[in-house]
Specification:
The complex is a heterodimer of chains A (496) and B (413). Chain A is α+β, with helices and mostly antiparallel strands and 496 residues long. Chain A has three domains: 114 residues, no CATH class; 115 residues, no CATH class; 167 residues, no CATH class. A five-stranded antiparallel β-sheet of chain A has the order 1-2-4-5-3, with helices on both faces. Chain A has a five-stranded antiparallel β-sheet with strand order 6-7-9-10-8, with helices on both faces. In chain A, a hairpin with a 5-residue loop joins β9 and β10. Chain A is elongated. In chain A, 34% of the residues are buried. With 413 residues, chain B is of the alpha/beta class. In chain B, the strands form two sheets. In chain B, strands 1, 2, 3, 4, 5, 6, 7, 8 and 9 form a nine-stranded mixed β-sheet that branches. In chain B, strands 10, 11, 12, 13 and 14 form a five-stranded mixed β-sheet that branches. At the A-B interface, α12 and α16 of A face β1 and α6 of B.
Amino acid sequence: MNTTLTGHLLYNVDKLKNIFHYPQSKALYIRSVYLSFLKREAVVFFVEGAAEIKTIESRILTPFLSEPVQTMDDDDIIDFLIEEILTSSICKKITTFDAAVNELINGNTVIFIEDERAAISVVTDAFKDRQITEPSTEFVIKGPKESFNESMSTNCSLIRKRIKDPNLISELLTVGDREPQQVTVMYIKDVADDGLVKQVKQRVNQIEIDVVIDLTILEHLIEKRPYSLIPSTLTTERPDRTVSFLREGHVVLLMEGSPLALIVPITFWSLIHTAEDQYLRWASGNFTRVIRLIALVITLLVPSVYLAVTTFHPEMFPTDLMLAIAASRERIPIPAFWELLFMEITLEILREAGIRIPTVIGPTIGIVGTIILGQAAVEANIVSPILVIVVSITGLASFAIPDIGFNIAVRITRFIFLISAAAMGFLGLSLAFIVFLAYAASYSSFGVPFFAPLAPSLPSSNDLYTRPPVQKQSLRPFHLFPKDKQRMKNRKERNK
Amino acid sequence: MKRLVYAFTVSSLFLLSGCWDKAELEEQAYVVVMGLDQHEEDENAVKVTFQIANPQVGSSARGDEADEPPSDIVTLVASDVAIAKEQVHAIVTRKISFRHLATLIVSEKLARSDQHHQLIASLIIDPEVRHAMSFIVSKEEAKDFIHANKPRLETRPHKYFQFMRERWREIGYVPDSNLNRYFQRLGGELFLAAYATAEKNNAQQPRKGYLAGELPQEGGDPVQIIGSAVFRYGKMIGTLNGRETRTALFLREQSFVRNAMETFTDPLNEKFEISARIIEAYDPDIKLNLKKNPIEIDVTIPVRLQMVSDLSLTDYSTNLKNQTRLKKSIQKQLEKRTMEMIKKTQEEYQSEPFLWYLNARRHFRTLKEYEAFNWSEKYKNAKVSVQYEVEIANFGEQTKPAKLRKPKGGHES
């Protein structure tokens, strides 16, 4: 199909019509004009919904139908039209049908001229985009309130707004065989490691699939271990967060139609940090971070520790607490393990239903949840009140884990721990924890170990469990092999 | 195939292993207090009393069990505790568990017999038995003691002992004795165990230091725990009253009892008494001279004095002369009391409860050498000198005792 345009206007028009199944499909719009100043016929094509008619009228039709000031002095009619007649800022000369089709489906207008072997493409795209809104999942109280929308150019612009640096490279790659989609690879040339950039581009280029529906699908396609519980990439809807990753030497991928930026490589730390940790002052930022770490431990371990202690090691409770639990469990007909599993699964159902439920009947879920989970289950002697506390603390804590992928991974792991604790008490729990930790420690994302720079220990700004004040975060993380290792010169060098 | 093998391995891990010790909380009966008594006729038998906590009393899960007692007390006769733990299931519905057993009560009669050590030593074979459980000697049968112990404020029996233990550590009339300590002191040193009774004996002369049962009391809980039972070679040989127990604890290095309220004779007015809080500011300095015969033991105890009451209303706070006399007098009284107590241990018990054997042990290279030295034999005849270094900390909030201001000579109008 990659044929060049012929000099025959009618042939060209017919061929293009065929490609777009005209007139069966009404997508293609055709408008013929007579260029009186050239004494030639021209045909203007655009695709319904993709191009903006007003722009076509003002940028193309008006100049074509009015008498030009200049007279034709160029040998090439196409060049003459682009340079002296058309008032659009981006015009392109195209010579193949393939290119013409590509331009049309991307919302541009293609003009065929009588007796010319080339055509003109004018940028007139007007796909409808959402406004830039506040982030909905990564909300912060203090800090920028912009988030990405579904337009790649808007997203690029949001990033460029923050990094005014010619070294910020955006390269275009194409994925998908049937419907080629563009992927923008962004990185800062004098920071990001060349090897890393090459590796990311290679992974993208290696994808063999007919169509990549969304950036989130691309995320799965570039991952090395698709069955792993732990994610090896991170998506964020915050341009400011994306920019901070870029400045550290990470690589960012963007795609048309996705309100997210895909960041590689990642570590455990990037999964539990939030943008606000840095925006808040040192003490407040660290406080929220420590709270989040506690929440992580609670989500992972509280149900299984409760189970292990009640069924294997009751001596670990103070006598009063033990008696209180025993008293509340006296009329429960099912073992603690099934009781806990039942409640945990109910909670997970509640969470899932809460996401799927239409907003109009949303409040119902609260009533159903509190009544079924809280009161009725206890009064019906199916669960003990202390267990309700355990489950609700766990549920509450799980909401504090910021990354959705990691969040669900932790919630799944919680069930694995629960089963191990039910089988062998603390012994089983510690075995499962060791396995989990060993797996996480050996896991890597694009060659970067999951717990770097803590394990293996590498120089960095120690932005890990807690963070130092901003002026002390002078090093870029060395596990990314940044070309420019220092963010700021130390005071001695500055004073020179 | 490979996946099948994986799935099989992982599932068999859970199916073939684990769950041995698994037991639901509510399916167990938690013994919180255990009593041991000698059997009247059979020398080889022991009477074991289990006090089992009732989880529903005192918790929010009430319902129609409101009339249930806070605990169930069962007494069995068996050859040892392990057998009793099995046999009790003829009576008790739930599986007996010792995991929350924190108090062991031994009757004085059993404690004074040879059977005592055999029982206690074989008790800890059971891994459920906590070595940190409190060790209490009751004057009467342990069974009667447990039945009589119905504290008014603490409904749950374990709570009573838990709080009591905290008071012991604070006041020092009772040693904080537990099984661990018992097993540490089997080599001729004296082991002090808490002494308790529910039998009252008010005929004793007052205010010279009380043993359990002697404290004049009206109302309140039926049980008194004060003073200590003295053990040597795993056998009870006597008692120390509350004051003596406290003195013994004061003479230990790194003791948990650091302050004590004591009464002294007022040096300026012998009719009256002075009460003061004695604070042991630092560890006592214990110097041993093991080369001499008899061995010499030199103990210096630095104490600080806090005046609590001054019944003679003598001005000690502003009068320096009076202060010096007070200091000297108190020092003498303290030394006299301590020496009396030490003499008692030397003559009556022929060993010491002050843990000085730990200091003595440091003078030897090997344990064998120390054992050959025979510390308690040497201690019996040792020359012990005790010196208190008294320092007055303060006289309380009042700078001067408030005296009645009656007009001199004149008549009251």
